[in-house]
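INTERNAL TRANSFER SHEET
From: sequence group
To: structure group
Subject: TTF1 factor

Please process the attached sequence and return the structure record in the designated field. Keep the field labels unchanged so the import script can parse them.
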Amino acid sequence: LDLDAARQELEEFIPHVKNISDSSIKKMAGRDLARFKEFKKQGIAVKFGRFTQKENDQIRKNVGEFLSLTGIDSAEKLLFTSRYPEDKETIHRLKAEHSFCEKISEGIPRPWRLIYYRARKMFDPNNYKGRYTKEEKEKLKKYHTMHGNDWKKISELMSRSNLSVAMKFSEIKSDINYGPWTPEEIQKLKLAVKEVMKRKLEKEDADLEQSDKGLWVDSEQLCQHLPWTEIEAKVGSRYWRQCKQKWNSILTKKMSKGQQLRKDIKSLQIKITLIKRLHDMKVEDASEVNWEEISNALGGVPRTYVQAKFYKLKVSYVPFWQKKTFSEIIDFIVEHKLPELEEKL
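Return from structure group:
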């Protein structure tokens, strides 16, 4: 396939493919396109977002089988080959001979790159070293002075993962407030999000609609893929995870009051739509639910709002729900409560 043809074929499976670089398109055409088509034949859609427990178990199975097949003696050697220079050449040869890309992604309807990153996160022993000691925090500050944001270098010096050292430095680099948010901090957070959203939309050549109330954008864009480290820098007194959590709580509160939610959707309609969508998915466990799909069906509200609605439904309507499976809870609500709700509507 040429580049344009590959991009066009991938667009069927990845809606945001136009924003992906040419080099990534080439890799996806080789690693993912055939898999995606095979999953389509089976009626399985390509997934994004949080990995389910079932997918995590499949990754563990795939990694274990590849280690048995090749004789490589640890997942760390397989996924972090650069840490073992003396075995690097042999491991690369075994990966090529035994189709590492295909084997690691077997049975998982996601882009190969995301599966690979997930596997690295799961099997990196440097991710499970517990809390940072006072001495480690001082070392982290010192290494950052020497190497800047070269987290790969710093992670090697500290024997911690790249993500771990970057997140920890974000927490300790300045005086962080851990108490209740002040009105001034909340205002800074809202302005910071507005600034980055405006720039993001302008970059994507989106239409900007302005009013006295500020910038209006799709609600999904307001709660996903925001540059939290940049927002953290603009707020100044909170680290990025605090900013993300506070922003999500602000969105949930506003939307649950109907300030962002479509005004014609009433409480009964939301409950009925939620119940029907969950029932139609026919999943056995809550971890397999596509909450984004249901969020869109309810007008683009945050997934936390949807999950809170479902929790309230089962607690209110299902006796002894703690002892029931997810599918039993849904079946009970559909049989005993849905007709009543529809009649009431």
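Handover comment: DSSP finds 19 helices and two strands in the chain. The beta strands are 209-211, 214-216.
Transfer complete.
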